[in-house]
Specification:
With 180 residues, the chain is an alpha/beta fold. It is built from five helices and nine strands. Strands 4-5-6-9-7-8 form a six-stranded mixed beta sheet, with helices on one face. Helix 2 packs antiparallel against helix 3 (123-139) and helix 3 crosses helix 5.
Length: 180
């Protein structure tokens, strides 16, 4: 039996069940004979999609497990946003609770105040160190572990953030950890 990975969602479970190529045990997908000619890879595509690639003698199949989009809180809501999660500790300036649409706001895994303030003092020179330190905070945070497992069931998740910088912010680190 070849272990494919710990990640699974209803789409993958139903796909595999319908073709009878594997069984699900304890959340993991395991190949069972006679499918030894299949090769299954799990990977991150374009830093926004966790994908399983199944290569068999009959062709290649792609199954997207989780798509994570990043969007500023000030950007308009779109139908393809999926489950919208606001990931900052502080409410975005100028947005009212009535007009800002999100499905979840969990402040338990936002960067610590000390780390956030340290980063904002010199974001251009501290990004790599911030990403490393914040990643460690997320890895040690039980609330984030729970969040990560819950997000797998949505298929598409949009992380909302207030920062003007779309490339260097906590949502980028969260996305990378969700897809890791």
């Amino acid at each position: 039996i070849t272990k494919v990975g710990e990640r699974s969602n209803p789409v993958i479970r139903s796909f595999i069940a319908s073709f009878g190529v594997a069984h699900i045990a304890g959340g993991a997908i395991n190949l069972v004979p006679p499918v030894s000619l299949w090769h299954i890879f799990y990977g991150i595509i374009d830093k926004s999609v966790a994908r399983i690639v199944i290569i068999s003698i009959t062709g290649i199949i792609f199954i997207d497990m989780l798509t994570v989009n990043l969007k500023r809180a000030y950007d308009p809501q779109q139908p393809d946003d999926g489950y919208r999660v606001f990931v900052d500790k502080l409410w975005p300036r100028g947005l009212s609770h009535a007009t800002f649409h999100y499905d979840e706001w969990d402040k338990q895994f936002a960067p610590s105040d000390l780390l956030r303030e340290w980063f904002h003092a010199d974001p251009d020179n501290r990004w790599n160190e911030f990403a490393t330190r914040y990643g460690k905070e997320l890895d040690d945070n039980a609330a984030f572990a729970d969040f990560k497992s819950r997000m797998m069931k949505f298929g598409t998740v949009t992380l909302l953030f207030g920062s003007h910088d779309r490339v260097h912010n906590n949502a980028v680190v969260i996305r990378d950890r969700l897809l890791d």
